[in-house]
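Supplementary Note 2. Why include the ligand at all?

Several targets in our set were suspected to adopt different conformations when bound, so apo predictions alone were not considered sufficient. For every target with a known small-molecule partner we therefore ran a joint prediction. The input for zinc ion is given below.
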Amino acid sequence: MDNNEFEVINQFGEKIAPKNKNNDEIAGVERPAYKPSYNGGKYRSNSSYRTGSYNRENSYNRDKKPSDQAYSKSYDSRNTKGRYDYRTGRYTKDYSASGSYNNSGYRSNKSDYDHSRSDSKPAPYYQNKPQEQTKRQYPKKSYADALAEANMRNTPHPMTNDSQAVLFPSVSSNHRPVKRSPLKIIPLGGLNEIGKNMTVIECANDAFIIDCGLAFPDNDAPGVDVIIPDFSYLDQISDKIRGIVITHGHEDHIGGLAYLLKKINLPVYATRLTVGLIEGKLKEHNLLGSVKLNVVVPRQTVKMGCMAVEFIRVNHSIPDAVAIAVHTPAGIIVHTGDFKVDYTPIEGGIIDLARFGELGSRGVLALMADSTNAERKGYTQSERTVGSSFEKLFDTAEGKRIIIATFASNIHRIQQICNMAVRYDRKVAVFGRSMVNVIGTAIELGYLSVPDGIIIDIESMNRFPPEKIVLITTGSQGEPMSALTRMAMNEHKKVTITPQDFIIISATPIPGNEKLVTKVVNELMRSGAEVVYEAMYEVHVSGHACQDELKLMLALTKPRFFIPVHGEYKHLKKHAQLAVDIGIPKDNVIIGKIGDVIESDGTDMKITGSVPAGRVLVDGLGVGDVGSIVLRDRKHLAEDGLIIVVATIESESGTILAGPDIVSRGFVYVRESEELMDGAKKILTAALQGCMDKNMREWNAIKSRMKDELSEYIYMKTKRDPMILPIIMEI
Ligand SMILES: [Zn+2]
Ligand SMILES: [Zn+2]
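The joint prediction is reproduced in token form.
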């Protein structure tokens, strides 16, 4: 992010767009005339100007309307080549290197400036401005202008109709009405499901992607490893896509990224830890080095063509999570990503509520917000409450080995476990590949601080007595192959559960996993261990906002339109109701589904069409080759088993040389079902001989005849419907 070509300043005088070399729209803006005589003014010394000594209070008063304040700003010519002024809509190249040009222009009218306001301050430069300088030159319209205007525009709040909210009316009369480029929001995942989050934001000739996650299959996709969004729509707009922004490092937000980047190589923008976790993913797919990963920080803005993407800090169950504000010609869109409000976070600071509020008072066109916990009342507890529970449990577990199962990515939780281990003089051993990877990345990037020697190798675990050990492991969801499940089933090579174990499951079962977790808890208890889980103590808090926090977000951002995201239908519906309850008109709440094109011209917003969207199944190295037919067969095989019928026929004479023989799998145990098999064989021989006698040589017809007759016989005898595959060999 060091290619400082220009920057965009909003009406607060804040930088809102970073530099981008390829910005045609802004770079193309006509530059104001350069007035060498200006330099003769007595305002400030050139030297102070050059070094960027900009006095904010002196020249810009945020509380005053732009029309009655002096708005001037210099910049540091050492690291800025030019800038775009949002309010005046002008772009300035780096003239100040000569010390002779004031980049933000000057007030055209002396009366605009209220002298009384700066009595004690140095006389502003333009007091000495010659009259002939007062003609302003205005740049041509561009997307950037439209963007500027959109940011100026204030949407009176639907709830209050509060005209006072209009703090920044359109300032310059020179702004002709601009037809706003319609904005499209296209969710490709994450609606009506929890998983594979992905949204495309599209405007004019530019587009970008927010998140690209995966989902884990449930019982309806046997054998499938992961599920990713259908990317086929992106092929249609591939030349428009400027990049991918990622809200945080959870699998449901980054898990599909490697598959997408294999198709289209795009720059990725994310915070530091998120980039660290993405690097791990790319390494697995041999993509590291070929993808441009850009580290961003909260409050930074990245330009995506005619749009600008701003990152805003939020709290979540992984560090470095951000929400996103998209500044577009049609207005501001706020996407919360996954969030909660934690006033006492373990690390990283409190969610930037002030910024959400600021955006709200400027006017937010639409809010897209996390619906995961929309059904839960009140507030989500702070992560710190888990720490105090741990403290009590570590006391209780004195003399025993402690095993804690949690999510690999919950670095705050792991930090608290390590803190406890230090306090209770225990060593920490880490189990599970994902856990080891995430902890490694977090320590390397400074998100986890653990004194040397606390984390030990699994191999050296046996050198310490059990009561001096804390084992952190994956498997809090009862996943069949996870370390905790293998320990429970007594299949783990290195750990055997005994009554000397104190086990804490520091997670809530994800809906659908309850049975798996219960099974693991049962087995652990059967081994005599003490097991503690959420229902008993506060050993887990959610990473997602509950109703009160969701209402807070709505109240701060005051969106004109509301789009609940990140949830199953019931969550979206509940979240929509919350928005209506606090005053957003029902018609302004949009519950979408993946593939919907949600379009807005800046005043209205509605679903106007759809694009291809769905799920792509990944099985081993195959991406998308497992489709509905394959799944149907897998389910059929899994439920009813398979019968293969083999016969050899001499094609000329039609004599049956061998068979028909029957091979079955997953249907019945043949040795115990001889009678059934003999009957089946008789039926098949009769069917085949019948075909031969009629001189049938159409193999497909013969096969389907055999299949039908056998199927009928088996159903009659067993009420089962196995898959039947006849094979006829000709000689
Ligand atoms: Zn998340
Ligand atoms: Zn998520």
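The radius of gyration is 33 Å. The domain at 641-730 is CATH 3.10.20.580 (Ubiquitin-like (UB roll)). Comparable summaries for the other entries are listed in the accompanying table.
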